[in-house]
Design goal:
alpha+beta, 2 domains, three-stranded antiparallel sheet, 7 helices, acyltransferase activity, transferring groups other than amino-acyl groups, Acyl_CoA_acyltransferase, GNAT_dom, ribonucleoprotein
Length: 251
């Protein structure tokens, strides 16, 4: 599974507006945002890596005006961390990812008074982005056009986006997935605004996105938990622990 996950990350990075191959790495850049969580690189599994390759990668980030940063499944490039640390990189996080299959998915009911909706207009996409931003503590009232466009492009390529909406039209939260690749898709951005928490909505959104992926033919969904509470939510809907991923950056 580690190898399949890493290959899918490589393939998805290559769909970024400005994707480049530099030695054993693929770097995906988006000119509309300097967020390090969107602009990053990952190694191609099975390709040898040298210190000179790290230098060339840092140069590529400098040319794009972005902070050098990588995300990858550790078992697929076990020698890479040492090379990056030697080049002045610092570990941000080391997370265990979880996977779900159709046989393990356990979809809870959507809380009363709420519905899960796939956005069809940019206005609805903007509302979902605002709800996610508020839940994550980021600029709730000003969803960027770039963020809305990224969501739209992901849907056009087969990614799933779901928003949770109350009966009176208030958007309570949302979540999404990357477009499936090699039968895999990452579930991410699961967020619930404060006043709608503790009702099981996060689990319902997670399961709803995952179920739609499986209905579209995906074999596995994967994600990472940001803390113990979200870990328990994901395990309840059928995600089980699997391999490890590293987040590491320079500067």
């Amino acid at each position: 599974m580690d190898l399949r996950i890493q290959r899918s990350v490589v393939s998805n990075l290559r769909t970024r507006p400005q994707a480049i191959d530099t030695g054993p790495f693929v770097a995906g850049f988006d000119p509309e945002t300097d967020s390090p969580y969107i602009n990053y690189a990952t190694p191609v599994p099975g390709v040898p890596i040298t210190a000179a390759d790290i230098t060339a990668l840092v140069t590529a980030f400098a040319g794009a005006g972005r902070k050098p940063r990588l995300e990858y499944v550790t078992s697929c490039s076990p020698e890479l961390e040492g090379l990056l640390l030697g080049a002045g990189f610092t570990v941000e996080e080391r997370n265990q990812y979880l996977i779900c299959s159709p046989s393990t998915l356990n979809a809870p009911p959507v809380p009363t008074g709420l519905e899960l909706v796939e956005p069809e207009t940019d206005r609805d996409r903007a509302a979902i982005v605002s709800a996610q931003n508020e839940a994550f503590g980021e600029f709730p009232d000003d969803p960027s056009e770039a963020a809305v466009a990224r969501m739209r492009r992901s849907q056009e390529r087969g990614g799933v986006v779901l928003g949770a909406r109350s009966a009176d039209g208030v958007w309570a939260g949302g979540g999404q997935s990357s477009p499936p690749n090699d039968g895999l898709s990452e579930v991410a951005g699961i967020a619930v605004r404060e006043q709608f928490r503790r009702r099981g909505l996060g689990g319902a959104i997670s399961a709803g996105v995952t179920r739609r992926l499986f209905e579209g033919g995906a074999e596995f969904a994967w994600l990472e938990a940001s803390g113990d509470d979200s870990w328990r939510v994901y395990e309840r809907v059928g995600f089980v622990p699997s391999g490890y991923r590293l987040y590491i950056s320079q500067g």
